[in-house]
Design a protein that fits this description.
It is a single chain. About 50% of the residues lie in helices and about 15% in strands. The chain is α/β, with parallel strands linked by helices. The protein has three domains: about 5-145, no CATH class; about 150-250, NAD(P)-binding Rossmann-like Domain (Rossmann fold), CATH 3.40.50.720; about 275-470, no CATH class. It has a six-stranded mixed β-sheet with strand order 3-4-2-1-5-6, sandwiched between helices. It is flat and about 90 Å long.
């Protein structure tokens, strides 16, 4: 949310809870209306309205607020935008609806039609988005009128300071008033910088704080300049003034930095991948529910494919392969066999025809692939047994392709970061024209792009594109 004081935060949380509760009610009216207009259509049988249902609505409204809290919707964010607020709402609506489905499935609530849940998702998304738009614009107008504003001092006269001051001037809705600039040396005092007066230097920063009413100090410095402003940090801490840092010190990993105090020792941790426990929990929950459901629903298809593979070529129905998983830990997985039994032995003979640059082997018209195997690969049906590996936790639905031990030994150093998360059945490479990619480096870059930009929403988009790829039969 766009306010920091505790009472503003509570108001925002209450507004979100009420909006979500009303969304359940409006969705029910829309569902009931659809049933009346289109009788006999698959909207589901009547929903039983009871006091029990009211308590469930209150519970899920609280869950929605918890999800928004975990997503950072109520943390201090003057440097925000309506786009960010809308994205948070979209994520919360999607996560919340997913949790609603999961709890309904696991706890066996009273009958709730899936059509109602679908209608609720869109109603809730629209209602919360509308609420945020109203709140965002109300706060923006209040600040433009001179209320709820913060007086800030900017430390620095470099490019970062210039960009920051200019950005603040363009975004009056942030409610920040730059009352002065602090330069590195005293010779600049009295000059102007980006239209703002230089009111002091690093040496007399304490005096600057005493002479001016300051809400926050914004330090704009590069990584090499941080040592020069160390005393400013200490002064702000001593004086009880909020200080924020605008710096490139952390580079690309800034979003993965955490600071802890361990026995009085300040420890800064840099994570190579997404390390949000909440987000990873939701990802694992989705893996369990979807893989478990598909294993049950597709079990007749599994049996049919296994019988066809067994009947049309010599050898077992399943191909067992040992691959490297999360943090290079080996595990065993299975696919439907699509090649002749001695395929691995014949690989060396065909190595000269390899069309992939790098440690991976692939040729377009591989003579080792059986007729049935070609069909299975075309529609990616050979991958289905890996759902068991997903259910067990060795793999995820979405993630980099598993690496074989023989491939890992040929990886370059930067290739190995793809093993910093669980491998998946599908990935960006799978849905981005894999048949056209013949450079392993490009393949790995797509895996690292996925790792660096991972979100629950990205997984959903990849799964949707995978479904279209399977239906079109462009998998081989």
């Amino acid at each position: 949310m766009i306010w920091r004081p505790a009472h503003h935060k509570r108001i925002a949380q209450l507004a979100d809870a009420v909006t979500t509760a009303l969304s359940f009610f409006v969705a029910y009216l829309a569902w009931w209306w659809a049933n009346q207009i289109f009788p006999g259509t698959p909207f589901g049988r009547e929903i039983k309205v009871s006091s029990d249902l009211v308590w469930k609505i209150i519970l899920f409204s609280i869950i929605w607020v918890i999800i928004l809290t975990k997503l950072g919707a109520y943390t201090y964010q003057r440097f925000t935008s309506l786009v960010r607020e809308t994205k948070l709402v979209a994520k919360a609506s999607l996560f919340g609806t997913f949790v609603f489905f999961a709890m309904n499935f696991l706890l066996r609530f009273e009958y709730i039609p899936r059509t109602y849940v679908g209608i609720f998702f869109f109603v809730n998304l629209f209602a919360l988005t509308l609420e945020k738009i109203i709140a965002f614009n109300v706060a923006k107008q209040i600040r433009k009128k001179g209320k709820d504003r913060k007086r800030v001092i900017v430390v620095g006269t470099g490019l970062k300071a210039k960009n920051f001051v200019e950005t603040v001037e363009r975004n009056l809705g942030w409610g920040l008033d730059v009352i002065g600039i602090v330069a590195e040396d005293r010779s600049s005092i009295g000059n102007t910088f980006c239209g703002k007066r230089v009111i002091g230097s690093n040496e007399d920063f304490e005096k600057v704080l005493h002479q001016n009413l300051v809400d926050e100090v914004i330090i704009c410095a590069s990584g090499t300049e941080l040592a020069k402003v160390e005393e400013i940090f200490e002064t702000c801490e001593r004086e009880g003034v909020q200080v924020r840092l605008n710096s490139d010190f952390f580079g690309r990993v800034a979003k993965k930095v955490t600071v802890d105090q361990i026995y009085g020792l300040p420890i800064i941790s840099f994570a190579a991948v997404q390390n949000s426990e909440w987000a990873l929990y939701v990802k694992r929950l989705m893996d369990i529910l979807l893989s478990g459901s598909l294993l049950i629903f597709l079990s007749p298809l599994f049996l049919l494919i296994a019988l066809v593979v067994k009947a049309t070529s010599e050898g077992p129905a399943f191909y067992e392969w040992n691959v490297m998983g999360f943090n290079k830990k080996p595990f065993r997985s299975w696919k439907f066999r699509t090649m002749v039994v001695d395929a691995d032995a014949r690989k060396e003979v065909l190595m000269s025809q390899n069309e992939m640059k790098g440690p991976v082997f692939k040729i377009k018209n591989d003579p080792r692939v059986t007729k049935v195997g070609r069909f299975l690969r075309k529609f990616s049906l050979d991958e289905l047994p890996q759902l068991w590996s997903v259910f067990k936790g060795d793999m995820s639905l979405v993630g980099p392709r598993p690496a074989g031990p023989h491939e890992l030994s040929r990886y370059e150093s930067w290739h190995r970061r793809k093993l910093s998360i669980k491998p998946g059945i599908t990935c960006l490479w799978q849905v981005s024209g894999r048949n056209k990619i013949n450079d392993f480096n490009e393949w790995v870059r797509m895996d690292l792009e996925y790792i660096d930009n991972w979100s629950f929403w990205l997984d959903v988009k990849i799964l949707f594109k995978t479904f279209l790829t399977v239906v079109k039969g462009t998998g081989y």
